[in-house]
Amino acid sequence: MPLQRALTSIRSNFNDYAKHVRMFSRNARLYLVGSFLIATNFAVFNLLFNLYLREFGFPEGDVGLLQSARAFGSALVAIPAALLISRVRLKPVLIIATTLFAIFSFGLLTTLDLKILVSFASLAGMSFAFYRVASGPFFMRNSTAVERTHLFSFSFAMVLLASMVGSSGSGNLVTIIGDMTGDIAAGYKYTMFLGIMLGLVAMVPFAMIRAAKPSASENKISISFDQLKRRGKFYFKITSANLLIGLGAGLTIPFLNIFFRDRFNLPPDQIGWYFFAVSCSMFLGTLSGPLFTRKFGLIRTIVLTQFISIPFMFILANSMYLPLVVVAFVLRGGFMNLGVPISTNFGMVMSEKKEQGFVNALLMVSWTSGQAISASIGGEVIEAYGYTVSINMSVVLYIISAVIYYWFFRDSEKRNSDQPGWHIPARGEL
Questions:
Q1: What fold characterizes domain 224-430?
Q2: What is the pLDDT of residue 429?
Q3: What is the pTM of this model?
Q4: At 430, is the pLDDT very low, low, confident or very high (cuts 50, 70, 90)?
């Protein structure tokens, strides 16, 4: 009987989810297809570009500089993009951003001049930022309150699925092309070319979208001195911990592919399968997020999962035993990223409706700015002292971030007295 009840519950939940998915508008479905294609291209570049650079002898410091340039480009235009996107049709934005991202990504594969590479990386980051910032307003305009939560969740799942496909497929393709041509660098380049072409195909579903102007009632993002004076304390709190996370991530995350290459001398196809496993772990973590928040609340879930990931970071930093390192790599990715959508959700809940777009942009800018600052530093640290020092520096920043986040927001949630779970009693001033 317990098994039968469990199966009945699973079937009921699946049918409910499927019912809401069938409610997605035509525009939303087209966007999801285009998003999957672009995310697959992004996953291919994330996995292969650093490895490609290392084949040509670029040191970790130069690799970090390019990562910083891309992150800096995204941070630079995120808020202006949010201001613009709240006022214009989104279809042209999606098409132009997709085209420019493909052009600048292509440019990264046509030269080995560091200064030109930095320029292309910055421009690619800027164009991709417009696509990222447009997603939230697009969903708000093309969904109703009934299916909107499912649409956001499904979109995040599509990105993770694209990461799985991009990570596993591209690593194998590099090896196949490398064996055929006798040049592993050619394998990297041609695989990334194919990724770019796949990303460009996203223009087809985007071009089929029937986009309307922003409605008169739609919130248009604005920033005023009075708003900053009244809500500046909240803006500082919600972004400062995110900035520290970005700083910690920039020291380590962009280099994890070359970490496996350099420390364990692994081929790209094997590294690709490890990144596939991380995407699976993130996917499962995302699904388990509501279970954690129901038991511990939003804030405590964010802090708890960050702390759980710390021991796995120490293993990454200090172990030379590959199976243990792979397990730590996968579990760290799952726990550390479990709190990302929860943190965004908390920021939106604590925001006034008219400032939600601005707060969303602030969260993106704070994380990306942190990564932009630390990625170049991380490359230099790895080049001079190795991965152990860099990863341990990330651990320190993650711990400080978790402590600050808890200190700032520990009293913003209350446990329900009449039913399981937590609630936020009022936004107010924090």
A1: Growth Hormone; Chain: A; (1.20.1250)
A2: 41
A3: 0.83
A4: very low
